[in-house]
Structure formats: structure tokens, C-alpha cells
Amino acid sequence: MSANYLTPSDLKTILHSKRANIYYLEKCRVQVNGGRVEYVTSEGKESFYWNIPIANTTALLLGMGTSVTQAAMREFAHAGVMVGFCGTDGTPLYSANEVDVDVSWLSPQSEYRPTEYLQKWVSFWFDENKRLQAAKGFQQIRLAQIEKRWLSSQMQRESAFQPDPAALQTLLNRASDEMAQAEDHTLLMLAEAKLTKALYKMVSQTVGYGDFTRAKRGGGIDSANRFLDQGNYLAYGLAAVAAWVTGVPHGLAVMHGKTRRGGLVFDLADLIKDALVMPQAFIAAMAGDGAQTFRQRCINVFQQSDALDIMITSLQETAQSQAEDAQ
């Protein structure tokens, strides 16, 4: 055996939570060349070849004008890379096995994954009260992430985003109380919607964006709405990876299951969307950034805050704690 030969297990030695790369590609061909996965772009009569370090990549978004070879898909599967087909700038997201126009990922990876967390998850999932408790736990993690990230020293150094700590704390405390007292999923989702609306108002006022209304999917004509869509799809990609790594199917949601297919992806993405994507979307909108610059902003902040690690750990700890309570 060649010393340079890598087995599929070798390619997965970098934990998904520690991988650095998320790619969005358009107008190119993804292929295997000399044992490496690369994408090819053309300018006139010249072609340019760029390597994709698959062992250090979590997700790949393929935009308009892209193609991918069977050999490349096989290598992505070996390395545990989640692949999604999407429109311009990463939205909307489609795939060959589309289940929802909101978010859908190709997961051709081996299904021979550990079943520990799946078994713990289903041990409580069919109990509606346990699902509600798990959903409340996710929301508390979400609130903690908002407080931690929005009031962090790094964020405070962002001259364009310095929210009032007292006002933010009051808002988060009120939301925490309302969510803890919610008697069912409907009331919990109402509390969540109320929180999100208040956060949009706070962040838009903080950066001086002016009046802001969150548009429905694909309906945003202003830059903040477009950036929110694009950043959220990146978060959905990380969430899909987190669910795949732990082996819990997307349908076993604790919050969004009755309203959206693939709801666990939305549950996991909500842990970090408000904390990380929302402020970056408004900062980028005020700075006049382009889509590529904004995506890089999001990827950087995801890496700095260990966003994927937060999702995986939250899912694992929720599975463990709720399974113990169900016994």
C-alpha cells in the first residue's frame, strides 16, 4: 500500500466540529484530478484549478452554473462533507433528494454511524412533554449565546454594533421567563417569535439601519434581508452536519417538527442564528458589503465561536439529559 494512500476513516480524523471550511461555488466544475478534489473555473481560453481540502471541510454549497462528477461526490462521501445545490448567493437551497425548498442537503455518507444518540433521542421524543422540555432547553442555549456573543469584547469593538447591555439583558430575561412558563409548543413558538421581532428591532436601531421588516423567504429586496437569508443557509448547513454526525434524523425535531419538514436542522440552527448571523447581516448591510464578503464574515464568526461544536454538544447533552429523565 502506498504511504500516500488515505482510507475513508483517515479522511474523517478531523472532527467535524473542528473543521475550518465552508465553500460556496458557482460557474465551475468540481472533479477529481490526481487523487485531489478540485474545482475548475474558466476565463476565456484559460482554465484555473483550485484544490478543495475535503478533510477539513464541513459543507459545500454549489450555486448557479456548477457541475460535480460522480468521483467527486464519492470523495465528499468518504470525507463526510455535506453537499447542497443552491441558487445565486446560496439561496434558496435545493438538492437532488429535495424534501423542502427551505433547506435540503445531500447526505450520501455511510449510514453506519454510532446509534448512541439516536437511541437516547427516541427514548424521550415520543413523549410530548419531554419534547417540550428539550425545546425549552434549546431556547435557553439560544438566549445564552445571544448574551455571550452580542456583549462579547470582540463584538463591543465593532463600532457599528454596540447594543445597550441593560436593554438586551432585560429583553433576554423577559423572553427566558416567558419560554420557561410556556405550557405547550404553540406558546413557546409565540414567545420565540416575540423575541425574534424584538431582536430585529434592537439590532436595526443599534446600527442605524432604520425601519426593518423581515421578509418572507426570498422576498427581501433590501440588503439586510438578503444577508439574513444567506447567513441562515450557512447555519442550516452546519446544523445538517451536526445532525448527521450524531446520527439523529432531521425529522425528529423538538421545536419545528409540526410546521416544517427537516425541522431538527432549524432547531439546531436557531441556537446560533440570532447570536451570530443577525448582527453580521446588519453590519454588512450598513458597510455596503457584497455577498462574498458577507459569507466570509459569517464563516469567520462561525469558526471563532465554535458554532458547529455548540450544535453538536447541545444535541448530545440534550439527548443524554432527556433520556435520563425519561427512565
Automatic annotation (TrEMBL):
Record carries keyword DNA-binding: yes
InterPro entries: CRISPR-assoc_Cas1, CRISPR-assoc_Cas1_C, CRISPR-assoc_Cas1_N, CRISPR-assoc_Cas1_YPEST-subtyp
Keyword tags: Antiviral defense, DNA-binding, Endonuclease, Hydrolase, Magnesium, Metal-binding, Nuclease
Alphabetical list of CDD domains matching this protein: Cas1_I-F (cd09718)
Molecular-function annotations in GO: endonuclease activity
Protein name as it appears in the record: Type I-F CRISPR-associated endonuclease Cas1f
High-level lineage: Bacteria, Pseudomonadati, Pseudomonadota, Gammaproteobacteria, Enterobacterales
Gene label: cas1f
